[in-house]
What we know:
Blueprint: E1 5-12, E2 20-29, E3 32-40, H1 52-58, H2 62-65, H3 71-82, E4 87-89, H4 92-106, E5 113-117, H5 118-123, H6 133-139, H7 150-168, H8 173-179, E6 185-187, H9 189-193
Parallel strand pairs: 1-4, 4-5
Antiparallel strand pairs: 1-2, 2-3, 5-6
Helix pairs in contact: 6-7
Amino acid sequence: MSIDFTAIDFETANSSSASACSVGLVKVRDGRVVDKVGWFIRPPLEHDFFNEWNTRIHGIVEADVADALTWAEQLPDLVAFADGDHLVAHNAAFDMGVITGASAASGVPSPSFAYLCSLAVARNTYNLDSYKLPVAAMAAGFEDFAHHDALADAEACAAIISHAARRHDASDLAELALMTGGAIKYIGPAAADRRPMALR
């Protein structure tokens, strides 16, 4: 089984997709975690207001990110950690929206990534009342983690994908996507490269 990917999770300061205030990244090789990292992010101007509701969810306040590097300063580190991997996230449209939104607001090009949504995989792997991250992670045998801590959530997401791949006996991420009715999707220039010719 060659289940290789980087799981990713963002927390945001407010409802803006550009307001990333923390990220967690977990590198998986052959279905096993081999590296992980997380850090605070100082959101770009006009997207840096900390909404009380968001803070209530993740516990991060403005003072926590006051000395953090900005999105533009840290994006190279994020790309370097992923190192060409497919990304995996739970409700991936949100996290991919953060990458594109924060890049646009920071005046830097969005990087290209292929990605798979662990929420879609979970829905076609487990029979659950809810497919929220903590419930799906429990089905994968990953319990008692600090939900809404970006690194812990990325670890939970990694556990779901690795467990689902074993359950479906998938040889790689693309096969897992196919077996669970999902699809590998793309953001950044890679997404434009995959548009049908008639739409270009």
